Amino acid sequence: MMTYQQLGDILKLIRKYHQRVRNTLNEAQESTSSEVVESIVSQLKQHENNWQIALSEYGDEGDDGVLNVWIQYVPNDDIQQAVQDAELKPDMSIDDIRQSVIQFHSALTALYRTMKDSVTAPRVSEFLTRLYEMEETVTGQQAWSSRST
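^ that's the sequence the OP posted. Answer follows.
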């Protein structure tokens, strides 16, 4: 059986995960004075701002808006597993936190790629391509910064 969801509902789930990541990182930032955690928090805030800008540009179109589009939403098992594996815990080391955040953004990149490749509506494809490119950028930045520390 095919599963369909509105794009807005899928993005709400992603937003909830972003909030959990941010809360855990804020807790880690309070308990340690790590420049790495501060950098991850800063990157995440910037990414969330860009994400919100994209949502506002594409989501304010009433009933015909991109976020109201029904799409097939069947993430493969690898993506679901990566999101579960990326769960942050307060007692994680800085390197584990960084790897989990990178893993999550990699999973989002794959999810956005899958969704953008499955839609035919130009405006929806354009929106998902933008989210995909944003995730690719974040993942690259985080991977690069993990090598330089």
